[in-house]
Amino acid sequence: VQLVESGGGLVQPGGSLRLSCVASGFTFTSYNMSWYRKAPGKERELVATITNTGGRINYADSVKGRFTISRDTVKKMVYLQMNSLKLEDTAVYYCNAALGRLRDYWGQGTQVTVSS
Known about the structure:
Elements lengths: L1 E5 L2 E3 L5 E8 L7 E7 L6 E6 L6 E3 L7 E6 L4 E6 L8 E9 L3 E4 L3 E5 L2
């Protein structure tokens, strides 16, 4: 099982980044996919979730209207489009795959730094 994130980097406030996560080794269409983030000194935060069918999406209040999660079943990928980035969005972003409470997989994380 692998989840590999990419797309992080340094961006100025107000800028945009698109994170990608490619999945392998499990039945992608059975898993809900999420993005979490962990900032220094803060607890891990659930940023966005998309269900296995893509039929339901949820966002943290802190990113609503700015971030968009999506998934591509054929490519087995999940994306996080991040617009209007703020200083407080700086964190390591992690891709997560969850099969209810039965199984849970994590990527290695990608650093997003918002700084002027």
